[in-house]
Amino acid sequence: MGVQQNIRNILNELAQNAQGIDNAQADRLIAHIRKAGHIFLQGAGRSGIAIRGFANRLLHLGFSVSVVGEISSPHSKAGDLLILASGSGETGSLKSLAQKAVESGVDVALITLKADSSIGRLATCVLALPGTAKTENARAEGAFSQPMGSAFEQLCFITCDAIILELMAQLGESSHSMFKRHADFE
Q1: Mean pLDDT across the stretch 13-27?
Q2: Mean pLDDT across the chain, nearest whole number?
Q3: Which of 52, 80, 156, 159 is the most buried (most CB within 10 A)?
Q4: What three-state secondary structure class fits 130?
Q5: What's residue 186's pLDDT?
Q6: Domain-located, residue 131
Q7: Phi, psi of 84, deg, nearest 5
Q8: SS3 of 50, please?
Q9: What angle do CA 34, 39, 44 make, to 5 degrees?
Q10: What is the pLDDT of residue 26?
């Protein structure tokens, strides 16, 4: 098939899946982000990589953010927001985090493939991304499909960047104003 054809297939898959994103769900997530006192973010595996990129851009927009588990992460309080990325909505460590957040009065937002999942039922806000959950035989089920959860993780990253663009417009931010908040000790 070749790398170029694989790239075209990946981009086509993501473009097709992106058509099914519910703008109202994204708008609710944006509203929760804007009103949050502090924003905690977490995901496991490759979803965790996508959510860390989102945390970084939220920081550049001036939001108070931290990735769960970092030593500089503050104590949570009511009015804060926990954003989780989990394709299945069933990741054990993230379910525990969501439950603890709910018990602490912290709102939970979930970016997922499965709105009706354990974490989805705990969440105040769910952004469901179209696609299929990772399975052992996903590629054998029919048309082109990336292995495991790749399509979710990629669409999660792109969707988070699209949310950043919307927040930039709402807040009157630009790359120039955001760059002033970019790390200078690297």
Answers
A1: 96
A2: 92
A3: 156
A4: coil
A5: 82
A6: yes
A7: -115, 145
A8: helix
A9: 130
A10: 98
Quote the pLDDT of residue 139.
46
Which of these is catalytic: 153, 166, 173, 186?
A: 153
179 within some domain? no
Positive or negative, the CA dihedral 36, 37, 43, 47 is: positive
* 80 contacts: CB under 8 Å, gap ≥ 6: 36, 37, 38, 39, 40, 106, 107
Q: Is 125 helix (H, G, I), strand (E, B) or coil?
A: strand
Residue 123: CB atoms within 10 Å: 25
When divided into structural domains, the chain yields a total of 1
What pTM did the predictor assign? 0.92
Average pLDDT over residues 68-90: 96
Helix-, strand-, coil-residue percentages of the chain, each rounded to 5 = 50, 10, 40
What amino acid is encoded at 80 in this protein?
A: D
153 is catalytic: yes
User: In which domain, by residue range, is 18 found?
Assistant: 3-68+75-174
Q: What is the pLDDT of residues 121-170, one digit of tens each?
A: 999 999 999 987 655 444 445 556 787 789 999 999 999 999 999 999 99
Query: 181 in a domain, yes or no?
Result: no
Asked whether 105 and 77 are in contact (CB, 8 A), the reply is yes
Q: Is the CB of residue 14 less than 8 Å from the CB of residue 151?
A: yes
pLDDT of residue 35: 98
Angle between helices 23-35 and 150-171 (to 10 degrees): 60
Q: What CATH number does the domain containing 30 carry?
A: 3.40.50.10490
